[in-house]
TrEMBL record:
Ranges that cross the membrane: 46-67, 79-104, 110-129, 141-162, 174-201
Native source species: Bifidobacterium dolichotidis
Location of the protein in the cell: Cell membrane
Domain of life: Bacteria
Family designation: Belongs to the prokaryotic riboflavin transporter (P-RFT) (TC 2.A.87) family.
Classification via InterPro entries: ECF_trnsprt_substrate-spec, RibU
Keyword terms: Cell membrane, Membrane, Transmembrane, Transmembrane helix, Transport
Membrane topology according to the record: Multi-pass membrane protein
GO MF annotation, one: riboflavin transmembrane transporter activity
Ranges where the record places region Disordered: 1-37
Signal peptide start and end residues: none
Name of this protein: ECF transporter, substrate-specific component
């Protein structure tokens, strides 16, 4: 009788311990989707990355001239998709979407597509790295600013060294365009990316999460 009572007490204690371990809090960077930067590749993670990559591909064909003085420079919203994917799922998602999103353009304009990939990577990966461990609006703003600075530098460098290879322009001619054309265009483009991303990244993260 006494032995039986003692045994049941031990069982109750074990049950309570097991229940308490089930209620341990998750890490702050855990996602309900299981598609965060944990190093594990699930079918859901692959599907979400593919969805964002396809969306980046689609919107990369939307081309809007921003400056009448330079109608060949056109804005496309693919950078927003790269930024949102990075904020939602980490820098690896940002990198994958930034590269895959411009693959269709490799066949028609390989050097232009390379420039677009480099600038998208320079924008979205640093932003995602800054935001990853502290998911606050302040960190989002900091990430967007840092990413934009990196992207602006990448755009200028790419224009100086890659544009002359296919646009029949010398490096000096491109350099002369930096202040009056390239800087204003890229600042406007990045400002649009940043503002739209800041407005939509939280709702979209919750939607896909």
């Amino acid at each position: 009788m006494g032995r039986s009572t003692h045994t049941s007490g031990v069982q109750k204690k074990r049950t309570k311990t097991a229940g308490s371990s089930a209620n341990l809090p998750r890490p702050d960077n855990a996602h309900s989707t299981g598609v965060g930067d944990t190093g594990r590749w699930s079918s859901k993670r692959i599907a979400i990355y593919a969805l964002f990559s396809a969306l980046a591909m689609a919107v990369s064909f939307i081309e809007i001239p921003l400056m009448p003085a330079a109608p060949w420079l056109k804005y496309d919203p693919s950078g927003i998709v790269c930024l949102v994917s990075g904020f939602a799922f980490g820098p690896s998602a940002a990198a994958i979407v930034s590269v895959i999103g411009f693959l269709p353009h490799v066949f028609s304009n390989p050097l232009g597509a390379l420039m677009a990939m480099i600038c998208a990577l320079a924008l979205s990966v640093p932003a995602a790295l800054v935001y990853r461990n502290h998911k606050t609006r302040g960190r989002a703003v900091a990430g967007l600013i840092i990413g934009s600075v990196c992207a602006l530098i990448a755009a200028i460098v790419c224009n100086l060294f890659i544009t002359p290879l296919y646009a029949h322009m010398t490096m000096m001619q491109v350099a002369a365009m930096i202040v009056p054309i390239l800087l204003p265009f890229n600042l406007i483009k990045l400002a649009i990316h940043d503002v739209v991303t800041f407005l939509i990244y939280k709702p979209i993260s919750k939607l896909v999460g």
